[in-house]
C-alpha cells in the first residue's frame, strides 16, 4: 500500500490554512477591541478629559522600572473647573489646532512626528515652564508668539510664529495637559517633571 499520510495530503493543508486564517482574524478582532478600550478617553490608560481639572505628576516606580502618571487633587486650569463636556470641547480645540498648524511637522506627539523639536507628550510638565504658578501664562504667551517669548528647551532651535489665537492657545494647553496624563508605559524616558526635585 502506498497511501499518502494525512499530514502530506492536500486537503489537510487546505483545512489548516482556513483554520489559521480564521483564528488569526478572530485574534485581530479581539485585539482591536482591546486597543480601543485602552486608548479611548476614559479608558484604562487614557483619563477622561476632565483630568485637566487635576494635578498631574509622574512617580518613578522601582518595580516597573518606569515613571507612571499619578493623578492628584484638584489643580484647576485657567482657574476654572470644567465639566466633562466643556473639557472635551477645549481639549478638542487644542487637538484640532495642533493638526491645523501641523505641529507634527517639527514635534512628536506620543512619539509620532518629526524630530526637529522636542516631544510634546509631557511638554505641559516640562521644567522649562519654571513653576506651576507661571506655567499657564508662559505657555499661552509662548504659543501665541514663540519668537518674542522664545524659551530654551535644550534644542538650540527656534519655534516660528504660527498665528495661534488666545482661545486656540488655551485649547492647546488643555490638550497638552490631558496628553501628559496618558499612561505611555514610561515614554518619554527619564523625563523630570516640573514638580520633581532635582
Ligand atoms: C517649524 C517647527 C515647529 C513647529 C511647526 C512647531 N514647533 Fe513647537 N517648537 C519648535 C522648536 C524648535 C522648539 C524648541 C525651542 C527651544 O528649544 O527653545 C519648540 C518648542 C515647543 C514647546 C516647548 C517644548 C517643551 O519641551 O516644553 C511647545 C509646548 C511647543 N513647541 C508647542 C508647539 C505646538 C502646540 C505647535 C503647533 C501648534 C508647534 N509647537 C509647532 C518648533 C516648532
Write a short abstract of this structure.
This protein has 198 residues and is an alpha+beta fold. The protein contains 4 helices and 4 strands, in the order αββαββαα. The chain folds into 2 domains: 9-39; 49-180, Cytochrome Bc1 Complex, Chain D, domain 2.
Break the fold down into its secondary structure elements and pairings:
Layout: H1 10-39, E1 54-61, E2 66-74, H2 84-100, E3 108-109, E4 112-113, H3 132-144, H4 166-180
Antiparallel strand pairs: 1-2, 3-4
Helix pairs in contact: 2-4, 3-4
List key phrases describing it.
single chain; alpha+beta; Cytochrome Bc1 Complex, Chain D, domain 2; 2 domains; two-stranded antiparallel ribbon; 38% helix; elongated; binds heme C
Detailed description of the structure:
It is a single chain. By secondary structure, the protein is of the alpha+beta class. It has 2 domains: 9-39; 49-180, Cytochrome c-like domain (Cytochrome Bc1 Complex, Chain D, domain 2). The chain is 38% helix and 11% strand. It contains 4 helices and 4 strands, in the order H-E-E-H-E-E-H-H. It has helices spanning 10-39, 84-100, 132-144, 166-180; strands at 54-61, 66-74, 108-109, 112-113. The strands form 2 sheets. The protein has a two-stranded antiparallel ribbon with strand order 1-2. Strands 3-4 form a two-stranded antiparallel sheet. Strand 3 and strand 4 form a beta hairpin. The longest helix has 30 residues, at 10-39. The radius of gyration is 23 Å and the shape is elongated. The relative contact order is 0.15. Bound molecules: heme C. Residues 97-98, 101-103, 105-107, 116-118, 120, 123, 126, 128, 143, 150-155, 157-160, 162, 172 line the site of heme C (HEC).
Amino acid at each position: 500500500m502506498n497511501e499518502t499520510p494525512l499530514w502530506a495530503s492536500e486537503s489537510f493543508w487546505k483545512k489548516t490554512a482556513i483554520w489559521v486564517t480564521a483564528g488569526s482574524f478572530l485574534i485581530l478582532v479581539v485585539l482591536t477591541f482591546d486597543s480601543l478600550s485602552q486608548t479611548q478617553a476614559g479608558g484604562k490608560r487614557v483619563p477622561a478629559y476632565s483630568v485637566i481639572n487635576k494635578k498631574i505628576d509622574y512617580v518613578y516606580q522601582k518595580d516597573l522600572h518606569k515613571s507612571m502618571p499619578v493623578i492628584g487633587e484638584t489643580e484647576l486650569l485657567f482657574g476654572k473647573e470644567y465639566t466633562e463636556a466643556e473639557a472635551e470641547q477645549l481639549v478638542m480645540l487644542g487637538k484640532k489646532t495642533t493638526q491645523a498648524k501641523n505641529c507634527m511637522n517639527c514635534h512628536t506627539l506620543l512619539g509620532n512626528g518629526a524630530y526637529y523639536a522636542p516631544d510634546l507628550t509631557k511638554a505641559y510638565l516640562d521644567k522649562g515652564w519654571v513653576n506651576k504658578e507661571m506655567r499657564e501664562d508662559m505657555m499661552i504667551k509662548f504659543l501665541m508668539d514663540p519668537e518674542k517669548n522664545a524659551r530654551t528647551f535644550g534644542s538650540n532651535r527656534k519655534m516660528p510664529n504660527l498665528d495661534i489665537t488666545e482661545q486656540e492657545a488655551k485649547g492647546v494647553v488643555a490638550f497638552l495637559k490631558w496628553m501628559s496624563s496618558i499612561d505611555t508605559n514610561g515614554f518619554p524616558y527619564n523625563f523630570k517633571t516640573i514638580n520633581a526635585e532635582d
